[in-house]
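Duplicate of #3305? Posting structure anyway:
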């Protein structure tokens, strides 16, 4: 495989890889058969879409892609118990995880119940005092005052806490990796149970909850009654799917596409308030969900009030929503400051250990448990290795990990817990959480490194940068970006197309904030494009482009439409560059 534009080591240390020759041929054939724009055909060819399937791919319909809820074990049982509780007007509690997926899952149930004239008690555990998932004290207290407890985005491994919920029925709606045995409760609905086929393993918890509500509405129809409108709930499902980094393929793609349309109607007070406080000035897209809305919803669970995100998403009161969104925005700013300090310390520590091992890890005294996951994510991105970051407090450490494609971190963490090297741990392929005794920290990380090495972690160099083709500045039009967006939404498992602009000259460069860079560039003709590179000064990219001295560069990144004062223009989200 030859290096694209002869770039074997860019300013961020990556090799540039261009589209395969067969992709080019397939794109040409698609264009002849469909008359679709060339850039769009290139994307469809890369995704393996045939000419016959192109129309349905570009317009994914939930009716065609939504799985039968009953194909998931325990689903019918869970929905009928839920409906029995509703018709008997029993007391229902929702126990939710403190992240976006947990908050949206809780909001789905609360909103549906409100449409039925009923209320539910929301319980979200405190990350620091209680940790992830159900605990015995909270479950016993909820069982004392409720008839049904629904655990969302958690609970699959919570045997003892669920056993403590005496006198109440418990339903688990989750997607985290299941163990060999399931907790003893009314129903565990989870496409990642060990006795499931794995066909729906890519669903986030909010999608599992949504499917349970689809099944509940179906059972109500069978009894000649109408359930609440489910399509209006898809904004919540879309937010969870993107924020939880679920792959945007199959039904997930349709859920997000429809959810973005619902979100654009601005009907949900919580999401409207959050969009406004995030200064979102265009129709929502996956970038907004993943980088503007998601982190703010998460901020409550990370460093503030654990239930704030779920309460914001489920409120129907605009002024209450506005106050909560403001608070989450403040917490998100605080979170960024805490994260920056932990990140600098973790980077330094991991660097001393070396980045060549199968696992990159760091542990520090008093590191805030609410930011270790984000810092692990940054370490993973910069090293192309699975990463674990742990905050130590007393005799224990609480940590979070992120993995790279092809390496199942959740299963390895679960094995470590079974071997007694962790107090507890679990998760899914790409992300996991753990609690470790301080005196077992080194042996646990050594063993985890061994397990990950067997899956091929540690063999890769810096991540290659995959490019979809070359563009000249004059060809990067608003119409082109609109064509590309038709094959979206983009995100995990469906990366946004990335283009290279060869041998361009930097017309303007300015540092923005601590580490970002704004530039504009052209090819010597009349066309000129603005670009923004976030975190450019964390690598060699920022300094090299800021002091360009008239040198020409190859630039690489993703195109987007910038809306300002009612006018639209193309902007490049710059990811990498190399001297031409």
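Output from current build:
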């Amino acid at each position: 495989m030859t290096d694209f534009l002869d770039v074997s080591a860019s300013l961020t240390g990556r090799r540039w890889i261009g589209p395969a020759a067969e992709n080019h041929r397939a794109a040409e054939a698609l264009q002849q058969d469909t008359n679709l724009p060339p850039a769009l055909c290139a994307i469809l060819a890369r995704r393996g879409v045939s000419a016959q399937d192109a129309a349905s791919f570009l317009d994914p319909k939930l009716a065609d892609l939504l799985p039968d809820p009953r194909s998931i074990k325990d689903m019918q049982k869970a929905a009928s118990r839920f409906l029995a509780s509703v018709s008997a007007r029993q007391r229902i509690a929702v126990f939710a995880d403190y992240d976006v997926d947990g908050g949206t899952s809780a909001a789905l149930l609360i909103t549906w119940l409100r449409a039925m004239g009923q209320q539910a008690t929301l319980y979200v555990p405190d990350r620091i005092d209680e940790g992830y998932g159900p605990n015995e004290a909270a479950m016993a207290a909820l069982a004392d005052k409720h008839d049904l407890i629904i655990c969302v985005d958690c609970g699959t491994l919570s045997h003892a806490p669920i056993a403590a919920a005496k006198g109440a029925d418990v339903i688990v709606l989750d997607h985290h990796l299941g163990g060999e045995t399931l907790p003893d409760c009314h129903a565990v609905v989870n496409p990642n149970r060990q006795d499931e086929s794995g066909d729906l393993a890519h669903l986030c918890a909010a999608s599992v909850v949504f499917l349970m509500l689809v099944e509940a509405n179906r059972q109500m129809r069978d009894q000649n009654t109408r359930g609440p409108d489910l399509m209006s709930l898809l904004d919540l499902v879309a937010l969870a799917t993107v924020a939880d980094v679920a792959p945007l393929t199959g039904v997930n793609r349709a859920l997000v596409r429809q959810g973005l349309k619902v979100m654009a109607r601005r009907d949900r007070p919580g999401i409207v308030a959050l969009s406004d406080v995030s200064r979102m000035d265009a129709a929502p897209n996956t970038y907004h969900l993943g980088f503007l809305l998601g982190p703010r919803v998460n901020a409550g669970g990370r460093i503030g009030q654990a239930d704030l995100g779920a309460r914001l998403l489920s409120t129907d009161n605009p002024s209450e929503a506005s106050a909560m969104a403001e608070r989450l925005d403040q917490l998100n700013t605080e979170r960024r400051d805490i994260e920056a300090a932990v990140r600098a310390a973790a980077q330094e520590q991991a660097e001393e250990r070396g980045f060549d091992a199968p696992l990159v890890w760091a542990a520090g005294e008093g590191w805030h448990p609410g930011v270790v996951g984000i810092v692990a994510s940054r370490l993973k991105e910069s090293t192309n290795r699975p990463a674990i970051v742990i905050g130590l407090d007393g005799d224990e450490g609480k940590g979070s990990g992120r993995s790279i494609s092809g390496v199942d971190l959740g299963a390895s963490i679960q094995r470590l817990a079974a071997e007694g090297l962790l107090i507890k741990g679990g998760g899914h392929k790409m992300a996991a959480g753990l609690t470790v005794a301080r005196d077992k920290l080194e042996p646990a990380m050594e063993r985890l490194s061994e397990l990950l090495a067997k899956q091929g972690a540690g063999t890769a160099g810096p991540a290659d940068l995959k490019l979809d083709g070359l563009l000249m500045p004059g060809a990067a039009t608003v119409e082109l970006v609109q064509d590309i967006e038709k094959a979206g939404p983009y995100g995990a498992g469906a990366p946004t197309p990335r283009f290279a602009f060869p041998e361009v000259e930097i017309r303007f460069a300015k540092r923005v904030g601590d580490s970002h860079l704004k530039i504009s560039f052209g090819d010597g003709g009349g066309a000129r494009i603005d670009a923004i590179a976030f975190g450019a000064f964390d690598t060699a990219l920022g300094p090299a482009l800021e002091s360009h001295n008239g040198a020409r560069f190859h630039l690489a990144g993703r195109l987007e439409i910038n809306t300002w004062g009612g006018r639209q223009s193309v902007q490049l989200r710059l990811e990498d560059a190399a001297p031409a």
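Confirmed duplicate; merging threads. The chain has a mean pLDDT of 95. Residues 318-353 form the longest helix (36 residues).
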